[in-house]
């Protein structure tokens, strides 16, 4: 070096052993000059490659850019000036004077070129140059100081060099400052057009590294709760339109590659077969081989190709972070060394303190960059998987769809995509954990030698324990989920059948059932809490046990082994590093296993067969015919037998073809085949023109009524209104609260079946297609509506008269009016021709007609005259003017039509769906806001309130009350004790290390080890006890109590509560919120308490050892509190927004899956894919800031932690004389751990605030208003009441809710015991209300009802309701045995039950079931037919056999036969009872004692049926309408 520099390179006396250190000139001119240059040249090739890949468009030359370039050129000139000055001397002194300026000059030139190159590539802020200027400046600081000192000592020797150096230094400083600023965004970039762009894309390098750009969101979130509009747009590269195609492209390539390989394998095997002419057996084997060898395309490869490279960047950061994390223990070692030596320069200590700080800071920044990359990868994976699954779901075949249910496919999106997302964060630990373990062990070995193995053995032994606990916990989780599902299922049934529970007074029985399930669930939770306590005990004691065994072995193996501060505390800090990877490995592996299962599921779903888009030929077609099928053979799945065979069809343009046949003969399949939904085995289908399709079960989207009809087409008012008229939707719009802007719930929940079908027809009409495929659309609507739609839309005079129509129908009325009829029998065409032709052929069709027409030969002549004299009941549609037009309607058809009208009630449009009450309300609403219907109630139900802002302390207090305030204090005390024990153990350790060493050994080692062990184990035991007490006992007790109160409160609520609250919302409280109270809140509280006390003890130790520390604590804690408040406010709201925007993705998806055939028929796939992508992006828009908020917080909180480390070290250096090395080790090693606990504390505060809201939400439902008490002890009626069944209404009035009009107005009537009363009246006359009053579902507004002299308003509800019986209109059954459905309280014997089954004509069915009366009914009684369910309700009534029976007659659900059965049973079995029947079919009540006619809530007529008919009043009119008078 001497020849190169002309002086020595290194001089320890000059540098280290002096109070005023300096570096040799040679070192300054070589190493310090070259470091930044080497950095830039090494990074340049990678950076150049990166810039070539990522071109963002060029940036205009700005003032900033000009300055940067100008300074760069100046720097370059100065370096060359130095060089030429040196060359200009007569004799060059030393090579270094030429080499260094030359290298520096070229590097400065490179930097200047880079400034311009980055501008052309659209880089707004350069990280590389920032680091370069920073390094150069740092390296220039030493010469800066040296030259000034030299000038002060000896004066300036080389004037030019001196001046150029300071100019150089100044320019570097300017460059560094300038590189902190940002350039403008590139031209034509999306940022310019975006209304609310994410500031990340324009953030500078420093801002990106520290996530400073996010601060604006945090401040906004702190001032006001964040809303949707405050969120930034997603970065372009994270949106679905960029992310999903990348994955799909890679997946398609992967599939193609595998296909090529499989073909190659197959062709090889088939060649072999050709060579072996005689080898028949071999041939079979080889072919089999070919089959089994087929490879599946790997979804994993596609994922890696799409997102691997981005993820790798994160991995590089992780590697850097792992390596840096081992620097601090080494620095701690040096620091303790420093305190042990007396005569060393004090700047060493300060240098070490600052080095520790910078190391920790660097580690923080790098770690969070790694997390950012991982989380963003995870987010992209989720977006991509959801997008790919959605796109696939639109094209899979029906057989593939059958293999996975809607729920399973939704799970692919929610659960499996989520698992991938979670895995990405941990994935790097697979290689990073072993690396950390190896490094830690290497350093430990250096300190303690082989004794380390003892500690490692303990760690290794703890791994299987942790794994076993994890396995068992998972098993418990599964078990708990089963109970939870059972409980939620039961709750859901209770909510669906709540009206029946109330009418029968069965609430207690069901409450007990829920409680039983809940008990089992809590038992499992308790078991897993015990396990949790063990696992926390293992997890917190592990580092201590490891340290204990290692130290104990170390000092006992050899007397000469002295445990000093260096060994003890450096080892402790290394053990702490070890703790994380060791505990995470089992978790990573289990989440890997889960993700691999998910991978398989997604892979198999994406590999399903797709529908062949070319199965229906859209191009070539014979002239004149629009639809032709030649020799078609179709099946639903390749493995199934053909559903349709030898189908030949030709449909000429503009004709109407009807398809008829018995149930299950393949009518709907034929329509599906024409749509290309079935697998075509042979034959040709061709269709010319666009298609509109009306499915048999109407598919309705969760959107406004208008959007459902427009279905993506532009709005045209004239066309729209004519279609509404034709589809008979105008009357419905008047009833719907928001007109056509009414939001339709999921699956069309707030429309009746008929309305849904009409909306579906309107959608088809609006699409203006060429061909209409109508799959039995008229069966769901009432007969007169069907007639209207046929005439106005489908028939020869309808809107579609010039289009080609294929109509599947069961209604024979319309057949005379169609052009052609196809009769299907068992999947093939048996006859085809016009109505007349088929009748004359006298084949299957004629037979079919005869069977149906037999029922029709009742004389109906008066009915036809009636039509001219009198209007229809006002509820039938628009008074049916169209019927008076003289259309060529067959007489037969007319008769049929009138008959159906008389049979269908006066109470039209399917009363099942819309109770009178709702209809009254909606009519009233419409009346209240005549001017602008749209603004009034469009929303179905008020949206759930999302809590905003801070959680009130009141809520925490509620929870504390549930747990028990005294016990809470006691638990806090226990947490405090366990920390005291931990501090004790560590203080003891520091005392131990400071023991004096006599003859190379420490005395009293066994005593030291014993006390250390005792203190440590005490801490472990205290932790165990605390966890055990708080989690397994107190918090579960609290959640049990909270659930109990909510269940009680819900069941006590009046019926009106359930009508105003969607059951989903109540279920959500019972599912998600109770789950949160069961599992999440206890966990949050536990971790919060542990981290809080840990942090407190760190600060306590540091302050006790170095009291100056107290000065720093205050500002640090203020900063901490400030960051935490800001973060919690923002993050809580972001979580809320994220969860609100998540469910629409899944609901839209399940909606899409149920409607795929409709979406495909209309060719709307792309539009739906876009909608789905938009919903995913909306969700990620709130998820992304959520991730970043954690990074933002992490960096700021860890900065506080790093400051604690800095000050702990600094003050230890300052007070070096007073402290032993042990105490220094103690305070600094404690401080090194504080960052982690500070971080967790904020997270837990945030989680706890998000979760504790569950307590508030649950409380809300346990404090709803309740109905009257179930039992009033001092007013209980006698056991045998009512003996006669005499019912009196005295001046009785009632209203639905406060502030609404009366529904019944001053009714006064007496009914003697045993009378049979029929109640009739138009819709909304108050018939149902009257029965609800008897049961006190509605409470009186005035007047009273007495039964056998007892005022019903004075007795308890259960006493009243259990003495009356009702057979409700909708038969509601619960899942459970049939016996349970008849007798939930088990009051009756089996004989009683068989007897009523016989009377209700069910005994044949029940005895044919293997389980008899214990036959399991599925949810809602799905496995019984509707008629059977109605008979079960009859059996219930027979079993209770009370004196008063109320019959709410079933209308739509029941066939005439069952109806007759019920009527005859009632007449015989309830002969001596008082019966009230709400009649829809008048013929059932013509033999009743009296008939009560209600009109607008008042009694219009009340007399015997014969008298009423003679009076010719309202009843006569009704009877005449029904053809009975």
Short description:
The protein has 1525 residues and is of the alpha/beta class. 62% of the residues lie in helices and 8% in strands. Strands 5-6-7-3-8-9 form a six-stranded mixed sheet, sandwiched between helices. Strands 17-20-21-14-22-23 form a six-stranded mixed sheet.
Topology overview:
Layout: H1 2-5, H2 12-15, H3 25-29, H4 31-53, H5 63-88, H6 96-120, H7 127-154, H8 159-178, H9 190-193, H10 205-210, H11 215-223, H12 240-275, H13 280-292, H14 299-325, H15 327-340, H16 347-393, H17 398-403, H18 406-427, H19 429-448, H20 452-496, H21 498-504, H22 507-557, H23 565-606, E1 625-635, E2 644-652, E3 656-660, H24 667-675, E4 679-687, E5 691-694, H25 705-710, H26 717-726, H27 730-735, H28 753-766, E6 771-775, H29 783-794, E7 804-808, E8 820-825, E9 828-833, H30 835-841, H31 844-854, H32 861-869, H33 891-903, H34 916-928, H35 953-963, H36 965-993, E10 997-998, E11 1001-1002, H37 1005-1052, H38 1055-1060, H39 1063-1105, H40 1109-1154, H41 1156-1161, H42 1165-1214, H43 1221-1262, E12 1287-1295, E13 1302-1311, E14 1316-1320, H44 1327-1334, E15 1340-1347, E16 1350-1351, H45 1357-1361, E17 1364-1367, E18 1376-1377, H46 1378-1382, H47 1390-1399, H48 1403-1408, E19 1416-1417, H49 1426-1440, E20 1444-1448, H50 1456-1469, E21 1474-1478, E22 1490-1495, E23 1498-1503, H51 1505-1511, H52 1514-1521
Parallel strand pairs: 3-7, 3-8, 5-6, 6-7, 14-21, 14-22, 17-20, 20-21
Antiparallel strand pairs: 1-2, 1-4, 8-9, 10-11, 12-13, 12-15, 15-16, 18-19, 22-23
């Amino acid at each position: 070096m001497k020849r190169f520099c002309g002086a020595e390179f290194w001089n320890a006396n000059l540098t280290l052993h002096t109070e005023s250190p300096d570096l040799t000139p040679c070192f300054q001119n070589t190493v310090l000059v070259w470091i930044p240059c080497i950095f830039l040249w090494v990074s340049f090739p990678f950076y150049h490659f990166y810039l070539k890949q990522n071109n963002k468009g060029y940036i205009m030359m700005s003032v900033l850019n000009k300055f940067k370039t100008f300074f760069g050129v100046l720097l370059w000139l100065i370096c060359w000036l130095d060089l030429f000055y040196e060359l200009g001397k007569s004799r060059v002194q030393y090579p270094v004077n030429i080499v260094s300026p030359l290298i520096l000059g070229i590097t400065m030139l490179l930097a200047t070129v880079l400034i311009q190159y980055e501008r052309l590539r659209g880089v707004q802020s350069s990280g590389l140059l920032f680091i370069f200027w920073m390094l150069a400046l740092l390296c220039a600081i030493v010469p800066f100081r040296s030259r000034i000192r030299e000038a002060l000592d000896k004066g300036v020797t080389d004037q030019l060099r001196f001046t150029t150096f300071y100019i150089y230094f100044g320019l570097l400083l300017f460059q560094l400052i300038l590189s902190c600023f940002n350039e403008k965004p590139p031209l034509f970039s999306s940022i310019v057009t975006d209304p609310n762009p994410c500031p990340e894309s324009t953030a500078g390098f420093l801002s990106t590294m520290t996530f400073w750009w996010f601060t604006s969101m945090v401040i906004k979130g702190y001032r006001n709760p964040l809303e949707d509009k405050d969120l930034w747009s997603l970065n372009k590269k994270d949106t679905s339109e960029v992310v999903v195609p990348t994955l799909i492209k890679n997946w398609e390539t992967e599939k193609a590659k595998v296909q090529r390989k499989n073909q190659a394998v197959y062709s090889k095997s088939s060649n072999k077969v050709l060579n072996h002419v005689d080898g028949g057996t071999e041939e079979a084997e080889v072919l089999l081989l070919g089959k089994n060898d087929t490879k599946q395309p790997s979804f994993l490869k596609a994922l890696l190709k799409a997102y691997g490279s981005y993820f790798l960047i994160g991995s590089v950061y992780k590697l850097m972070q792992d390596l840096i994390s081992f620097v601090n223990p080494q620095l701690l070692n040096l620091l303790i060394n420093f305190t042990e030596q007396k005569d060393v320069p004090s700047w060493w200590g300060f240098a070490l303190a600052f080095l520790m700080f910078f190391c920790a800071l660097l580690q923080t920044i790098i770690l969070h960059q790694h997390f950012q990359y991982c989380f963003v990868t995870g987010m992209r994976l989720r977006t991509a998987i959801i997008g790919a699954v959605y796109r696939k779901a639109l094209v899979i075949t029906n057989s593939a769809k059958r293999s996975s249910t809607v729920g399973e496919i939704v799970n692919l999106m929610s659960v499996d995509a989520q698992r991938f997302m979670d895995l990405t964060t941990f994935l790097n630990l697979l290689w990073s954990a072993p690396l950390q373990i190896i490094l830690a062990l290497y350093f430990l070995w250096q300190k303690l030698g082989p004794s380390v193995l003892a500690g490692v053995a303990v760690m290794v032994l703890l791994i299987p324990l942790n794994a076993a606990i994890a396995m068992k916990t998972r098993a418990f989780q599964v078990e708990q989920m089963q109970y939870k599902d059972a409980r939620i299922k039961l709750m859901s049934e209770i909510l669906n059948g709540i009206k029946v529970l109330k009418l029968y007074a069965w609430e207690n029985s069901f409450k007990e059932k829920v409680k039983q399930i809940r008990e089992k669930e809590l038992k499992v939770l308790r078991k897993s809490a015990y396990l949790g306590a063990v696992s926390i005990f293992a997890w917190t004691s592990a580092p201590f046990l490891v340290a204990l065994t290692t130290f104990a072995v170390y000092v006992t193996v050899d007397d000469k082994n002295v445990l000093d501060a260096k060994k003890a505390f450096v080892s402790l800090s290394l053990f702490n590093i070890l703790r994380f990877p060791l505990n995470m490995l089992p978790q990573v592996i289990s989440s890997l296993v889960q993700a691999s299962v998910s991978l398989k599921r997604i892979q198999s779903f994406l590999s399903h067969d797709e529908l062949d888009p070319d199965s229906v030929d859209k191009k070539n077609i014979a002239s004149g015919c629009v639809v032709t099928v030649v020799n078609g053979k179709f099946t639903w799945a390749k493995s199934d037998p053909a559903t349709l065979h030898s189908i030949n069809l030709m449909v000429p343009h503009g004709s109407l073809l009807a398809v008829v046949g018995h149930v299950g003969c393949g009518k709907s399949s034929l329509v599906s085949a024409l749509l290309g939904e079935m697998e075509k085995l042979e034959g040709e289908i061709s269709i010319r023109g666009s298609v509109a399709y009306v499915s048999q079960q109407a598919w309705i989207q969760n959107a406004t009524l208008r959007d459902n009809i427009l279905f993506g087409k532009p709005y045209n008012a004239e066309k729209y209104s004519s279609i509404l008229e034709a589809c008979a939707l105008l009357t419905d719009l008047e009833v719907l609260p928001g007109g056509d802007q009414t939001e339709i719930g999921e699956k069309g929940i707030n429309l009746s079946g008929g309305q849904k079908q009409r909306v579906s027809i309107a959608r088809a009409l609006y699409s203006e297609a060429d061909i209409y495929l109508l799959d039995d659309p008229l069966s769901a609507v009432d007969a007169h509506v069907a007639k209207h739609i046929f005439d106005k839309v489908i028939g020869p005079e309808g809107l579609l008269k010039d289009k080609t129509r294929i109509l599947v129908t069961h209604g024979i009325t319309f057949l005379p009016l169609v052009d052609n009829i196809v009769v299907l029998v068992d999947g093939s065409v048996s006859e085809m021709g016009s109505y007349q032709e088929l009748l004359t052929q006298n084949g299957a069709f004629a037979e079919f007609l005869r069977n149906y027409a037999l029922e029709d030969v009742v004389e109906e002549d008066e009915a036809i005259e009636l039509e001219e004299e009198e209007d229809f009941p006002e509820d039938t549609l628009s008074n049916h003017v169209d019927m008076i037009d003289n259309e060529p309607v067959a007489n037969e058809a007319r008769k049929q039509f009138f008959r159906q009208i008389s049979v269908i009630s006066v109470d039209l449009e399917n009363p099942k769906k819309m109770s009178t009450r709702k209809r009254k309300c909606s009519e009233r609403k419409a009346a209240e806001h005549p001017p602008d219907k749209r603004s009034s109630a469009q929303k179905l139900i008020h949206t759930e309130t999302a809590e905003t802002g801070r959680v009130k302390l009141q809520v925490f207090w509620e929870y504390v009350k549930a747990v028990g305030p005294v016990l809470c204090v006691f638990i806090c005390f226990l947490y405090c004790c366990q920390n005291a024990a931990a501090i004790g153990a560590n203080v003891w350790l520091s005392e131990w290390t400071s023991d004096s060493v006599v003859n190379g050994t420490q005395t009293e080692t066994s005593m030291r080890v014993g006390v250390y062990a005792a203190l440590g184990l005490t801490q472990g035991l205290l932790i165990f006890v605390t966890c055990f007490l708080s989690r397994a006992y107190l918090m579960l007790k609290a959640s049990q109590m909270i659930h109990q109160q909510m269940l009680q409160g819900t069941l006590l609520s009046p019926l009106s509560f359930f009508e105003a609250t969607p059951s989903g919302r109540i279920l959500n409280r019972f599912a998600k919120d109770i789950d949160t109270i069961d599992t999440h809140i206890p966990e949050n509280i536990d971790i919060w308490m542990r981290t809080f006390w840990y942090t407190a003890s760190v600060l306590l130790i540091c302050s006790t050892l170095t009291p100056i520390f107290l000065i720093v604590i205050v500002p640090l804690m203020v900063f901490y509190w400030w960051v935490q408040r800001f973060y919690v406010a923002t993050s809580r709201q972001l979580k809320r927004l994220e969860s609100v925007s998540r469910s629409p993705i899944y609901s839209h998806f399940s909606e899409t899956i149920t409607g795929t055939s409709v979406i495909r028929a209309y060719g709307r796939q792309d539009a739906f894919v876009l909608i789905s992508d938009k919903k995913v992006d909306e969700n990620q828009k709130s998820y992304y800031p959520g991730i970043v908020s954690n990074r933002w917080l992490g960096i700021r909180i860890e900065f506080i932690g790093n400051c604690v480390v800095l000050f702990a070290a600094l003050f230890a250096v300052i007070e070096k004389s007073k402290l032993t090395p042990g105490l220094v080790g103690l305070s600094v090693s404690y401080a090194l751990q504080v960052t982690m606990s500070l971080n967790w504390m904020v997270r837990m505060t945030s989680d706890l605030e998000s979760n504790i809201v569950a307590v508030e939400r649950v409380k809300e439902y346990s404090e709803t208003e309740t109905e009257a008490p179930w039992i009033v002890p001092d007013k209980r009626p006698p056991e045998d009441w009512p003996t006669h069944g005499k019912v009196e209404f005295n001046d009785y009035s009632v209203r639905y809710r406060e502030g609404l009009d009366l529904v019944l107005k001053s009714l006064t009537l007496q009914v003697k015991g045993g009378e049979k009363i029929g109640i009739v009246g138009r819709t909304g006359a108050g018939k149902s209300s009257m029965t609800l009053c008897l049961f006190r579902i509605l409470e009186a507004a005035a007047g009273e009802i007495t039964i056998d002299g007892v005022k019903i308003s004075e007795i308890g509800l259960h006493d009243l309701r259990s003495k009356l019986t009702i057979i409700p209109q909708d038969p509601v059954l619960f899942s459970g045995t049939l016996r349970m459905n008849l007798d939930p309280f088990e009051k009756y014997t089996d004989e009683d039950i068989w007897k009523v089954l016989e009377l209700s004509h069910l005994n044949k069915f029940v005895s044919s079931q293997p389980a008899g009366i214990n036959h399991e009914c599925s949810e809602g009684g799905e496995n019984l037919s509707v008629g059977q369910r109605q008979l079960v309700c009859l059996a219930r009534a027979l079993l209770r056999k009370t004196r008063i029976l109320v019959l709410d007659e079933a209308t739509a659900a029941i066939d005439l036969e069952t109806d007759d059965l019920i009527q005859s049973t009632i007449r015989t079995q309830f002969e001596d009872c008082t019966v009230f029947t709400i009649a829809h079919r008048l013929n059932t009540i013509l033999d009743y004692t009296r008939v009560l006619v209600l009109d607008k809530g008042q009694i219009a007529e009340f007399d015997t049926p014969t008298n009423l008919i003679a009076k010719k009043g309202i009843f006569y009119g009704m009877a005449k309408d029904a053809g009975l008078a």
